[in-house]
Every structure is written in C-alpha cells, then in structure tokens.
Amino acid sequence: MTIQETPASVLASAYQRSVADYWNREKNPVNLRLGEVDGIYHHHYGIGDADWSVLEGPEETRDERITAELHRLECAQADLLLSHLGPIGPDDHLLDSGSGRGGSSLVANQRFGCHVDGISISETQVAFANEQAEKRGVADKVRFHLKNMLDTGFETGRFRAIWNNESTMYVDLSQLFPEYARMLSHGGRYVTITGCYNDAYGLPSRAVSEINAHYICDIHPRSSYFKEMARNRLVPAAVVDLTEATIPYWELRAQSPLATGIEKAFLTAYKDGSFQYLLIAADRV
C-alpha cells in the first residue's frame, strides 16, 4: 500500500513550513514567463554568453526577445547539469531533489528515456509538475511527490543518480548527504549546481545576506559541501566554477521587465568574490 504524504508529515519544522508556504504562493513572472516559451518550467538561473542583440530591434517585441534568451540560458544550465550524471539508461531511476515545477525532470526523461522521481515540499509545485508530465504523456515514467529531501521514504539504493539544482541552501547538508548516500546505488552519481559563499572571503558578505533574506534560505560555505560529502562516501568526480559563466544571465536579467530587484546583489557578490556558483559531481563509493 502506498502511503500518501500530507503536508504535516512532510514538514518537520516551522522553517520548513515557511519555505513551503513561500513556494506554494510563488507566482513569479521570472519563472512562469520563461517556462511559457516552450512549456519547460525551470526554477534556476542560467549560464553562457548572452546574445545581446536581443536588446536591439523593434521595441514592441523587445521583452519577448529578452525572455526567450533568458530561457535559453537557463536551459543551457540544466543541460550542463544533466551531462554530468554519467551513463543513464531507460531502466535507470533518477531523483530530482527540489524539483520545482518539474522542468529538469522532464528534460532528463526526454534525454535518457529513464524514470524520474521529483520531490518538493510545495504542494503547488508538485501538482503543477504532475500536470506537465500528464500533458506530455510521460506520467508513467516521470512522477512528482510531496516529500522532504531529508527524509524521502524511498528505498535504499533505488537511484542511479540524484541532483539538486539550486535547492541545497534550504537544508542542513549534514542531514542531506547521509540520505543521498543511502538512496544512491553503489557507483551512482550525485550532482549539484549551487551558489555558495567563498570561505576565503570570511563570513557571508552583505550581498550574500541580501540573497538569503530574499529567498528565506541559508547559503552554505563552499567547504561544507566537500566536508559533508567526504563524510558520506560521496567522492567528487568534477568541480566546475560557473561564476563567470552565470554573470551574463544576471546582467541581462537586470535589463529585463522580469527583474525582481535581487539582480544587483547577485552581481555584486559574484564580482567581489564573496559568492561562487559551482557544479559539483560526486560518485557514491
């Protein structure tokens, strides 16, 4: 018998309830408008050189051009993450931990033909993502669940790969990585793309603190990822500094009608060295 999760059974603290409430109510155009470009709704930022020609041309289509370019950059970020998952076959099971509105899970299924479970503590996100899977005819292989990434209830060794895309700042890493090590099969791959503050800078800078306040999160120091992975048999296979690669996204977004006001803090933190944007891929040994 499948046990149906309820918000009360998923949310273990007042903080988690506040995060769930934030994402249940969130209808930010910078997420929704980008997803409307092609029906793939991501909840993360972008990488790569921006096409600045979108700022030129007819004024009446300027906003549409910028939105499409921002979406192209966020899709490039998702593609980069998925390319680090290693060999994936159609019978493999993947976990999209902190799956948002489901975009990366759908792309992973399209790319590999595999099974994907997405999890979120937001009922609204889970319902939206399952609706997208139904519309695309892949609900038999892509399913979204109301679950807490610190205590998922999935069986041990179920997943060939697990990823977080900009969601680890909502949890305690010392609790997160034991759960991932449990769920990954031997030789399985974990990948995260995340913002982290630079230990060499010292404590979080003012700009990093602004980002924390904006998203009600707690950005971790870079060292915490490697320390907690090492404690849980997750051995880094690749570390890619994406800081320079993400700056064009933020510079373009700052000129977009979809800007939220947090763009200046991101650009300041990236450029002064207090904040870094990393991809970390690690194998379960």
UniProtKB/TrEMBL annotation:
Gene3D superfamilies given in the database record: Vaccinia Virus protein VP39 (3.40.50.150)
InterPro entries referenced in this protein's UniProt entry, alphabetically: Erg6_SMT_methyltransf, GPPMT_Stmyces, Methyltransf_25, SAM-dependent_MTases_sf
A Pfam family matched in the record: Methyltransf_25
Gene Ontology biological process terms, A to Z: methylation
Keyword Transferase included in the entry's annotation: yes
GO molecular function, one term: methyltransferase activity
Domain Methyltransferase: 95-188
Keywords: Methyltransferase, Transferase
Protein name: Methyltransferase
